[in-house]
What we know:
The chain is of the alpha/beta class. The protein has two domains: 12-91, Rossmann fold; 110-153, no CATH class. The protein is built from five helices and seven strands. It has helices spanning 20-28, 42-51, 61-69, 82-91, 145-153; strands at 12-15, 32-34, 55-58, 74-76, 110-115, 127-132, 138-140. The strands form two sheets. Strands 2-1-3-4 form a four-stranded parallel β-sheet, sandwiched between helices. A three-stranded antiparallel β-sheet has the order 5-6-7, with no helix packed on it.
Amino acid sequence: MRPFQRRVVKDRYLADLMLIRLARWLRMAGQDVSRPPQEVDDSALIEAALKEERILLTRDRLLARRCEKAGAGCILVRSSKLDEQLLQLKEAGLSLELSPVRCTLCNGILEEVEGSDPCGSSRQEATTAWRCEVCGKIYWRGTHWPRIRERLDGKEF
Ligand SMILES: [Zn+2]
């Protein structure tokens, strides 16, 4: 039995600064994961989570407890290893399918742009690319995709 039904309203997340790498991987899976702009204290993090209705992702047990008390959503990430972190979140019900919706750098929304293959003109088919609306970074569907997908699937243990 699945622990969660797929939720209608998609949860949004706020990663504390210790979990920026995890945040980038979650964004590859289309998750909305913001981060504080700079070093902020625990109270400010909790406040931001409440105000923006985001679930805080943290490895800090004390912060997680404070978060709970304040009525903010929180997931205490147990492992320091990326693969175990991804597995924990998958078990918590997050969808981790590779999905180009979010910029991995800044969490901005990606828009689809028509593009030709940057690897050369020998290949005729047009490829799809995405551009971040916020920072302008371009994403291509490339040879690295299967590896990213496998890692999100937890196949690299
Ligand atoms: Zn961006």
